[in-house]
Amino acid sequence: VVKKLWERAPLDESVFLQEGPGIRSYEYQKGGYPMINVRCVQDGYIDLSTCNAVNVELATGKWSHFQVNEGDILFTISGSIGRTAIVKKQDLPLLMNTSVVRFRSKTTRLRDDFFFYYLQSWDFLAKLHALSSGTAQKNVGPTHLKTMDVPLPPLPEQQRIVGILDEAFAGLATARANAEKNLQNARALFESHLQSVFTQRGPGWVEQPLSELCDIKHGYPFEGEYFSNEGEYVLLTPGNFYETGGYRDRGEKQKYYTGKIPCDYVLNAGDLLVAMTEQAAGLLGSPVLVPESNKFLHNQRLGLVIKKPGTPWTNEFFFHVFNNQSVRKAIHASASGVKVRHTSPTKIGEVAVAFPTSLQDQKRIVAALASLTAETQRLASIYTRKLAALDALKKSLLHQAFTGEL
Fold this sequence. Notes:
Elements: E1 7-10, H1 11-14, E2 15-19, E3 33-35, E4 52-54, H2 56-60, E5 73-76, E6 84-86, E7 100-105, H3 112-119, H4 122-131, H5 142-145, E8 149-152, H6 155-199, E9 205-209, E10 214-218, E11 227-228, E12 233-236, E13 256-257, E14 272-275, E15 287-289, E16 295-298, E17 302-307, H7 315-323, H8 325-333, H9 345-349, E18 352-356, H10 359-401
Helix pairs in contact: 6-10
């Protein structure tokens, strides 16, 4: 509960609120007037690398009143509700979008920077999320926002709180940047070593097209009506693949299959699969070794990699072959499609790969990479926990600020 001595006022009486225009997909164009989208609004800053563009005449004519101004507070209202950023001069020119609203204080009793922090507080976001609609993707709109209210402590109190949060958040931002850099460095160390394995080859290495070494088998088109949130058989999908390779449990999103089980598509622990569709950025070509944790089914758009008789092959080594940067790039280049890119067993088979013909050498490399993987994961866990702790501290500071405890 907000400090009782603080006066409150309806949000739409205290701030100017505007949602952007609805744009149809065919109205976007390459080049033109930059138009923000939900992905552009990050926590505290604007990333224009993914922004859309619309006709300049429309943006400066019919939609000129949707042009963003320096100092506007942008707030996402679709999908990831509540990401907030203040527009800086270098972000302009920029046009609004229907998935984003902007705020500006319209009373001298409310500081924009105080309101910016309030928008990030649990006091505000919890109430707003309770009003959201939608199943797969949550949404709110101006109608919901206008039912909210705003705390109006005395201006000196607002200034004091903003000063404390500015200083604290600057320190948190530095700490977060350092933790993220350390996390990236840990992952880069493994990636660098993996690439060196395939670029600094020793004696006994050869290079051949994958089609001469293995066959790649398509998965089965399981019927969606039998998908379930629980069951005996996990339906392995691209969602179970990390972009950097490897298996991940999807938790509550894990798919199970309760229909008739086709025995030819039951996977064994240690089977090697490759993603042949790009349902997420960077996923195409990602490999997975089937874990022992469950019974798994081989779904379509995943390729089961089966070595040919007499081939010097271990799945554990060729998992790293498929995850090698040059092989991933070649598989990605083989794909076609506009909205979702796909490749095929035939196209993957054309990719040439390097490998040692000695199984002992393959096993030695796998053991060395496993040791490095364990150390990388240990460091990544440390930095991931630190990032979570920094996020929790940020939320705690905001909670204290708007419950009168700061």
